[in-house]
Amino acid sequence: MARALTRRRDGKGKKSPVARPADDTKLFSTKNDLPEDKRVEVIGLLNQRLAEAIDLQTQCKQAHWNVKGPSFIGLHKLFDDVNEDVESYVDLIAERVVQLGGIAEGTIGAAEQRSKLPDYPIGIASGLEHVAALSDALSAFGRAARISIAEMDELEDAASADMLTGISRGVDKWLWFVEAHQQS
Questions:
Q1: Which residue of 51, 117, 128, 175 pairs with 138 in a disulfide if CB–CB is 3.0 to 4.6 A?
Q2: What is the DSSP string of 98-142?
Q3: Residue 15 above 60 pLDDT?
């Protein structure tokens, strides 16, 4: 998450372990034919991606609000465009969790606890600094999405795998757009 504080919930400057679904995860009744044990696993994995998508969205806005320098207007608009798509990814992931009978855990606290994205450096201002930080976050999120695609395939949830494939394709496009500002 884009944080002003370096202290984490564990009080030692490290992220807390990822919360995994417990065996007693509450599921709402659904006629979705994915077996319950697989739905529990999928929901846990998707809530992990949800936390990271929320984190990525806040990082996009952090860059959008604070970018300075000669490329200000172009980067300001680019970062907002990235944010708009990431906002739609947040919604897609959360809605998939609920479709499977789960609870979308989209609070800031859940995102703080679960996200494995690199922390966004708060004190940066130049366009190139924001480009570097946001490209790190986009890359990490894209990698996590691709890992989750393989996990969804193992769990035989083609719909979640397909959703994550579309998201990873979009993230790769935005990574390309952002990284282009580092290349000559």
A1: 175
A2: HHTT-----SHHHHHHH--SPPPPTT--BHHHHHHHHHHHHHHHH
A3: no
